[in-house]
Amino acid sequence: MNVTVMHVLYGFVLLLAGLACGVVNTLASSGSAISLPVLLMFGMSPLAANATNRLSVLFGALMALRTFAAKKQVDWGAGLKMAIPATIGSIGGVFAAERIPGRSMALVITMAVMAAFLLLVFRLKSVLERPTPGEAKITTAGMI
């Protein structure tokens, strides 16, 4: 097959995967179950694929924050409380990812993607149901 045709085909596959990832992330926050396997399929190292995937997660979160903030639906105090353990966990995750060999990292990513996919499939109904109105409860156990 012609190299240019292959590049167009790869671009099309990446575009479709990106759109699917965005839709799934918006509905049920499991878009990584699509994006990580596609990035690995195109030959990215597991560490690079995971890091690249984090960018889409960051931008998706920023857009969600912008949307909810515009509607005055953000509890900034609760967000700060949750940001502290999330930041500590993220830093720990970066150090762990740097120390895990490539083959093992691919296995960790595969297990995480499968877990996300299974949660998506088996909890899709509850994810799509409208939550009951009220105040979210932030507990120490929940943050851990």
Write the layout of secondary structure elements.
Layout lengths: L2 H26 L3 H10 L4 H25 L5 H24 L2 H27 L11 H4 L1
How would you characterize this protein structure?
- The chain is mostly helical and 144 residues long.
- The protein contains 6 helices and no strands.
- It has helices at residues 3-28, 32-41, 46-70, 76-99, 102-128, 140-143.
- α1 runs antiparallel to α2 (32-41), α2 packs antiparallel against α3 (46-70) and α2 packs antiparallel against α5 (102-128).
- The mean pLDDT is 79.
| Rounded Rg | 18 Å
**Termini separation (Å)?**
52 Å
Poorly predicted residue ranges = none
Main sheet attributes: strand count, strand direction, barrel closure = none
Mean pLDDT: 79
Count helical runs.
6
What is the strand tally?
0
Instruction: List SSEs in N-to-C order.
Output: HHHHHH
Strand content: under 5%
- Give the helix proportion (percent range): over 70%
Structural class: mainly alpha
Cα shape: globular
Labels describing this entry:
144 residues, mainly alpha, globular
Explain briefly what this protein structure is.
The chain has 144 residues and is mostly helical. The protein has helices at 3-28, 32-41, 46-70, 76-99, 102-128, 140-143.
